[in-house]
Write a structure and sequence with these properties.
By secondary structure, the chain is of the alpha+beta class. It folds into 4 domains: 128 residues, 2-Layer Sandwich (Nucleotidyltransferase, domain 5); 85 residues, Nucleotidyltransferase, domain 5; 49 residues, no CATH class; 85 residues, 2-Layer Sandwich (Gyrase A, domain 2). The protein has 8 helices and 18 strands. The strands form 4 sheets. A 6-stranded mixed sheet has the order 3-2-1-4-8-14, with no helix packed on it. It is elongated.
Length: 406
């Protein structure tokens, strides 16, 4: 798989860049120019950030904080950054001992470059720092030197750009890093220097200043570093897009679903219409029978209720009792409440076919038994609901039952 590396400065507009196309076997193809002219035939794309524009530092973070967004992580190292924390894009790289390693970049500059790459047709790039492309082995640091300044890699996930030095005098930042490493007990045994012959430092002079052995390791360039080198600082999250052929493939299923919903809706409307028609026919039949039985009725509002009332009037006119009269109702009530203890029925009242019973010293189960017995005898019973604050009625509570004929 080909790898395209694009090196650009976050402090400049994303119009001009250096690039290198690295193949699996062939030599790297390099170039420089406008972003729109970079090759497009790479399987992987890396945006290479200069070492001087990436701060790699240590901090102690809670385990859950490692998954936080970059702007939140930047506050954990606020005292180590020059600008505002909101301006930094921080990434968690891993752990070094009992500390966490973070990389911080300019958020707006990174956003501009990622947007420009996407506009140029390059999506989902990896973000790398050239510092971590340097070769590194345990117990040894690596330094890429151009004769005046350089890049030092101090660990698997750590490194930085150096300040200026010369052939006889190493950069001050390198001496400070060695002092910090010695204080932590991590001072390297040697430093591998990658430099061209013309830019190579005086290793003996540097050794006297640094107190660490140095040796030349050849030349190094980010353009020719292996594809496996480096640690991704951030990866642009791929946006979800529907493939163009998906709507075409889903079109038959969509038509089938729409047809099924349409058939279901038609069947539901037809069922409702049929039930409403049957209800109207039943009501019309009941009204017709009522009018045929009682032709003197002025209006028919509720045929069933009016029929029951007319039937009660006819029975009374013939000297026969009706089910809603006091004597028939009290007989049914007495049969249903016969098992109650003496004094359980406090009061009984009757008016217009409705009988009210006031019960006391009856628990919830007893009330249920009485109601069930009354319902079996053909009466309807209205039971007041229990209070929400006392969902179970106490045994000494008063219960009022209203009994009617069905």
């Amino acid at each position: 798989m080909n790898l395209l590396r694009i090196r650009g400065s976050l402090s400049e507009a994303p119009a001009h860049c250096q690039w290198a196309l690295i193949g699996a076997t062939s030599e790297a193809l390099t170039g420089e120019g406008p972003l729109a002219q970079v090759p497009r035939r790479a399987g992987r794309v890396q945006l290479m950030i200069p070492a001087s524009q990436v701060l790699i530092t240590r901090a102690r973070l809670p385990h859950a904080a490692r998954r936080q967004p970059g702007s939140v992580l930047a506050y954990a190292i606020e005292e180590k950054t020059v600008g505002e924390p909101d301006a930094g894009q921080a990434s968690w790289l891993g752990s070094a001992g009992d500390e966490d390693v973070l990389a911080v970049m300019d958020k707006e500059g990174l956003k501009r470059w990622l947007g420009a790459l996407e506009a140029a047709g390059i999506a989902d790039p990896e973000v790398h720092c050239e510092t971590l492309l340097l070769p590194w082995t345990v117990g040894e640091w690596s330094l890429a030197w151009d004769g005046r300044e350089g890049i030092v890699r101090t660990g698997k996930l750590e490194g930085a750009a150096t300040d200026c030095g010369d052939r006889k005098l190493p950069p001050l930042s390198l001496r400070l890093k060695l002092a910090e490493a010695q204080a932590r007990g991590e001072k390297p045994a040697s430093i591998a220097v990658y430099a061209a012959a013309a830019a190579a430092p005086d290793l003996d002079a540097w050794h006297r200043e640094l107190g660490v052995a140095l040796h030349l390791a050849g030349s190094w360039d980010w353009r020719t570093a292996s594809q496996q080198a480096g640690v991704s600082l951030a990866r642009q999250r791929r946006r979800w897009r529907m493939a163009p052929e998906v709507p075409v493939r889903l079109r038959p299923a969509a038509w089938i679903a729409c047809a099924a919903l349409g058939i279901e809706a038609v069947a539901l409307v037809a069922d409702w219409t049929l039930l409403a028609r049957e209800q109207r026919m039943l009501r019309q039949d009941m009204a017709a029978r009522f009018r045929s039985t009682f032709p003197d009725a002025v209006a028919v509002v509720d045929p069933a209720l009016q029929m029951r009332r007319k039937l009660a009037e006819a029975r009374h006119a013939a000297g026969q009792p009706d089910g809603g009269d006091f004597l028939p109702m009290i007989g049914r009530v007495a049969a249903a409440t016969g098992a109650l203890p003496h004094g359980a029925i406090r009061a009984v009242s009757y008016e217009g076919g409705r009988m009210t019973l006031e019960l006391s010293a009856v628990d919830e189960a007893g009330v249920h038994r009485i109601v069930a017995s009354l319902l079996r005898s053909g009466l309807s019973v209205d039971v007041p609901p229990a209070s929400s604050s006392t969902p179970t009625r106490a045994a000494n509570a008063t219960v009022v039952l209203t009994v009617r004929t069905s």
